[in-house]
């Protein structure tokens, strides 16, 4: 019997391997079916050549993925409220609630991830060994590629472009990158003109009592840092994280301005006798950030903060930021949320964020 030629043996082997397929939903093992992506931590992750379904690990990632490729997001980490859904296309508002893998009070688990049948998991936010280790652990448990990206404002352009390649959303990624570049460039240029002594001392208030805050360097107050505001919390809130403080501590700091994302606190603080001697309260400089569909300053700290920089500039340095926020909001919402707000919605959005009266 004549033996097979080496070329014939190789061809037969290739056919067997092609038929066998590979991991991650049956994609083949060849370069045409897979590719290797390096995320912001330097992790090299093999992903399908074509990504159609994305599980967002947390709130920041859900906003970014939705902005770039809304049809590929498999669900939200929490259910949008009726008010929030009004600012989103109908399909986006109807996505299921899947919980989150990262952040405080994570609610998703391996079963939830597998049931969603994602091609990849995307995380977006603070980098560090803990998050990289979590990414490796979840990827090992689920068999789903896990990509972790830098959530800092400075990295929005590069991360948008990188994730745009992953999601085959290069056009939206390019547009968001340009918006980020324009916004950050203008903010830096204008803040550089403000003398240090004229930059306000700001307290960032979270929670219904306003007693949760963050120290400079935390992603939660990165917008304030970028605006040159002097965060009164200093290191007292803990190193680059959220923490609780007392009213007495806020009184001792005596901030010029209070910025908050909690409407209950914003509505009650002026009538609270414990806060009445704080300079920002006496002078009515309490600013509630616009909140829908995602708060403009934080919660989650994602690309929603780009429009928030224009709002903060208007609040803290009105002479340097004379732009009509309605125009800027329309531009950003059409770009990132795929729905342009109407005049009534803009009235509600920006009217609720006006500072409290003395």
**Total domains, how many?**
2
Radius of gyration: 23 Å
- Characterize the main sheet: 4 strands, parallel
- Helical proportion, percent range: 40-55%
Q: In the CATH hierarchy, what is the architecture of the largest domain at level 2?
A: 3-Layer(aba) Sandwich
Q: Strand sequence of the main sheet, in spatial order? A: 8-6-10-11
* Average pLDDT reading: 89
Tell how many strands the DSSP assignment holds: 11
The general outline is: globular
Write the H/E string, N to C.
HHEEEHHHHEHEHHEEHEEHEHHEHHH
What structural class should be given to the helix and strand makeup?
alpha/beta
Terminal Cα span? 100 Å
Oligomer: single chain
CATH class of the largest domain: Alpha Beta
- Specify the CATH homologous superfamily of the largest domain: Nitrogenase molybdenum iron protein domain
Low-confidence stretches: 6-30
* Strand residue content: 5-15%
Contiguous helical run count: 16
CATH topology name of the largest domain: Rossmann fold
Structural description of this entry:
The structure is a single chain. Mean pLDDT is about 90; it is low at about 5-30. About 40% of the residues lie in helices and about 10% in strands. It folds into 2 domains: about 20-180, Nitrogenase molybdenum iron protein domain (Rossmann fold), CATH 3.40.50.1980; about 195-350, Rossmann fold. The termini are far apart. It has helices at about 5-20, 25, 60-70, 80-85, 90-95, 110-115, 130-140, 155-165, 170-190, 220-225, 245-255, 265-270, 280, 305-315, 325-335, 345-350, and strands spanning about 35-40, 45-50, 55, 120-125, 145-150, 200-205, 210-215, 230, 240-245, 255-260, 285-290. The protein is an alpha/beta fold and about 350 residues long. The strands form 4 sheets. A 4-stranded parallel beta sheet has the order 8-6-10-11. Strands 3-4-5 form a 3-stranded parallel beta sheet, sandwiched between helices. The protein has a two-stranded antiparallel sheet with strand order 1-2. Helix 9 packs parallel to helix 14.
